[in-house]
Amino acid sequence: MLIGAHIFTAGGTYIRRGSSLPGNRMANEAFPGLLLPLRNTMLRYLFSTALLTIIACAGPPSADSIIARAIETHGGPALQNAKVRFQFRTYDYVIRRQGGEYSYQRRYENEGLQVTEVLTNDGIVRAVNGQPVELTTEEMQTISTPLNSVPYFALLPFNLGDQAVQARYFGTSVIKGEPYHEIEVTFRTDGGGLDHEDRFVYWFHQQRYTMDYLAYAFHTGDGGTRFREAFNVRTIGGVRFADYYNYTSDTLGQPGDPIETFDDVFNARNTRLLSEIVLENVLIEPLAADHQ
Questions:
Q1: In what order do the strands lie in the sheet with 178-187?
Q2: Rounded CA separation 37/28 (Å)
Q3: Checking phi first, is residue 115 left (phi over 0); if not, alpha (psi -120 to 50) or beta?
Q4: What's this model's pTM, rounded to 2 decimal places?
């Protein structure tokens, strides 16, 4: 037994470390079977301490690097210069991104009239039966909400690469037995759009880097929260698209509620299905980077 600077023998006597034994052997040599496990234990302790120190110094994963990996996984580069068409409910959407410029368009019928609304880098326009219509400030704000939000959700996580995004790593999570990175996203006032106060949380799979779940708190109208689960995942033109089950919860229904806990609420089956977010007839057409 080792106590302090002495090694006690089975007979109760002790030998001071480093003292001589007959034949000029040291006490350490007299008990190799005893000290070898101690040396191994010390080495394991030092290795574990060094490893924990490295991990602690490394800190949490970078939220921006996880988002960048997810955008790549979802085929984001193909959306840099592309035209995407789809139907959402009673609206036909056309999203065009090319050479740093964008155009978000939706078309629908209203009382027998064909309405086209377009949001571009230059502003918002509306045409009825092909004729431009003058808009009030309130009407422009009303139009801009769906013209921003529907393309935003349809192309996620592509738009999380925008400069207005402020991403923060929240930690790890497990949903339906699968491991995820949990990341909060808010937006800067400058460049964050009319709904820059909205708050989002995304769950990216730790191995696949797919965005399978998201939650958000919004302030438009009466405000509220939503939690979405991806389904019907498919790849079109090299881009991953998904439809979503759209949930809320009686315990997380207000914009100020901690939406980062939606994963726990969902695992506990305390969410309520409100609707399904379904994109139909999705088509994608690549465009030249320079359209001049």
A1: 165-175, 178-187, 199-205, 211-218, 224-236, 239-248, 272-277
A2: 13
A3: beta
A4: 0.77
User: CB count, 10 Å around CB of 210?
Assistant: 19
Q: Which residue has the tokens 């529907």?
A: 150
CA dihedral for 276, 138, 98, 208, sign (positive or negative): negative
* C-alpha to C-alpha distance for 152 and 146, rounded to whole angstroms: 9
If we measure between CA atoms, which residue out of 195, 191, 101 comes closest to residue 146? 195
Residue 155: closest CA among 271, 261, 6, 279 = 279
Check residue 128 and give its pLDDT. Answer: 97
124, 133 Cβ separation under 8 angstroms: no
Intervals of the chain under pLDDT 50: 1-39, 41-56, 192
Contacts of 257 (CB under 8 A, 6+ apart): 217, 225, 251
What is the distance between the alpha carbons of residues 240 and 78, in angstroms, rounded to a whole number? 10
